Amino acid sequence: MCLTNGAMSPAIGIAAFSAGSGVPFSTKTWRWKRFLAFCLPVAALVGVWVVRNLVVMRSFIPASSLVGIQMYWALSVPYEALGTDEQNRILGDPGEDTEFQRLAGLPEAQSDKAFQAAAMRILKERPLAFVRDCAGRFFGVWRIVPRDRAYTHKASLVRLLALLSDGWILPLAVLGFWFFRSNSWVRWMAVFILTVTVTYSVSHAPIRYRVPVMPLVLVLAAGGARRIKDWLGRA
């Protein structure tokens, strides 16, 4: 899913450059074999999705056909209202945004292009609001406690579980990055995480979207835990 998600493309591009350039490896010359060893499997997996789009929709769509609708969501629904009854009031059927229902009723490929065009029109009309919302999504995707939503379980239980997991993992990851920031691998992981976060902040960013980069966050958190352990051992 990560490889066929358009929002991951910039981060995958950085990883491909890293593989070929030798960063954060110790080499300083371009390594075509290593570059191709990374890119060919990725291209093959993404290619399956591209072929699917060609066969099903008779259209070349290099990533997801949901890019347009997610951009439209981000520009039409306040971030704090995503996943709530307020979103249903705006975009539901019936809802106050009749344009959304009209575009959603189009064939998949045509709908994606129409939503992208509508999103660009809204962006041109409200550029400052878009920048403000991007900032909110950038930090919102790393919230420790999720917002109130119509969860299957009690919201209090969801918040408690979040505190028991991300409540200590995310702070430890920040500490791990700070203490080991001179390490080229740590800097590379931070760039990868930052790139994914920035990309998601442009469109649609529920906190579950950080899952693809959580393995890197866990590595940084392990570094932070190690430093704290060293402190306690000297105390």
Topology:
Blueprint: H1 9-21, H2 32-57, H3 67-76, H4 85-91, H5 98-104, H6 108-125, H7 127-140, H8 155-179, H9 184-202, H10 214-234
Plain-language structure description:
This protein has 235 residues and is mostly helical. The chain has 3 domains: 1-63, no CATH class; 65-125, no CATH class; 128-229, no CATH class. Helices cover 68% and strands 0% of the residues. α3 runs parallel beside α6. The chain is globular, with a radius of gyration of 21 Å. The model has no long low-confidence stretch (mean pLDDT 82).
Compact summary:
This protein has 235 residues and is mainly alpha-helical.
Distinctive features:
single chain, globular, 235 residues
